[in-house]
Amino acid sequence: MKVVIIEDELASSRRLERMLNTFNYEIVASLVSVKSAIQWFQNNKHPDILFLDIHLADGLCFEIFKQVKITSPIVFTTAFSEYSIKAFDYNSISYLLKPINKNELEKSIIKANTFYKNEKELMTLKEVIENENLQVYKTEFAVRIGKKIKILKTKTIDCFYSEDNTTYLRSENSNYIINDALSSLETKLNSNQFFKVNRKFIINKESIENVTTHTNSRFKIELKNYNETIIIVSRERAKDFKIWLN
């Protein structure tokens, strides 16, 4: 069976690939964005099954369907909030919650092959997500530690930061490299919990130890489990930060 994976998190994508390889499935493409997916499907034979992340770096996956008619059965992969996932149950759509479980993977493949006969349900799911403004923020991140993949709950992350063109997350007193740019993380994180204080830092409200005034109407942030760099809220973000904090 030929498989295409569309997933913008490298660790999650590779973990799924390894599980699919145990079923002797052939991964013919691993894509990371709406744009790359559109180009691939316009120029290649569609696979036997498609694993599709809902929230990609350049938009919701439904943008793909506006440009190409996908004929493959689909398994949606998602880290939606618990409330949002009700939309999938309601529409009987094949989906996998991250981190993906092998037993659930088998079930989803069987389900996907029966689902896509009803294209109307796909459009219904799109409408539910868009019209009801369901949360699409991430609840987990997959990070690589050597040859292993570790799943970190978003609530355990103290901050995200950029350094030397690399993005890191801080959790459990350790720093982990991730593939997301800070700009894309803003759209994936719960804005009630996380705030981008400047060009280099996104912080978790629950991790704030102390906030003090700084020069030029700015603020200095001290986090409970991160003290490697001084974190200053930029002047441009100071007003919004005060609103967010309260």
Present the secondary structure layout:
Blueprint: E1 2-6, H1 10-21, E2 26-31, H2 34-43, E3 49-53, E4 55-56, E5 59-60, H3 62-67, E6 74-78, H4 86-91, E7 95-97, H5 102-115, H6 119-131, E8 140-145, E9 148-153, E10 157-163, E11 166-171, E12 174-178, H7 182-188, E13 194-196, E14 201-204, E15 208-214, E16 218-223, E17 226-233, H8 235-245
Parallel strand pairs: 1-2, 1-3, 3-6, 6-7
Antiparallel strand pairs: 4-5, 8-9, 10-11, 10-14, 11-12, 13-14, 15-16, 16-17
Q: Any overview of this molecule?
A:
With 246 residues, the protein is of the alpha/beta class. The protein folds into two domains: 2-131, 3-Layer(aba) Sandwich (Rossmann fold); 146-245, LytTr DNA-binding domain (OB fold (Dihydrolipoamide Acetyltransferase, E2P)), CATH 2.40.50. Helix content is 32%, strand content 35%. It contains eight helices and 17 strands. The protein has a five-stranded parallel sheet, sandwiched between helices. The chain has a five-stranded antiparallel sheet with strand order 12-11-10-14-13, covered by helices on one side. A three-stranded antiparallel sheet has the order 15-16-17. Strand 4 (55-56) and strand 5 form a beta hairpin. It starts with a strand and ends with a helix. The model has no long low-confidence stretch (mean pLDDT 84).
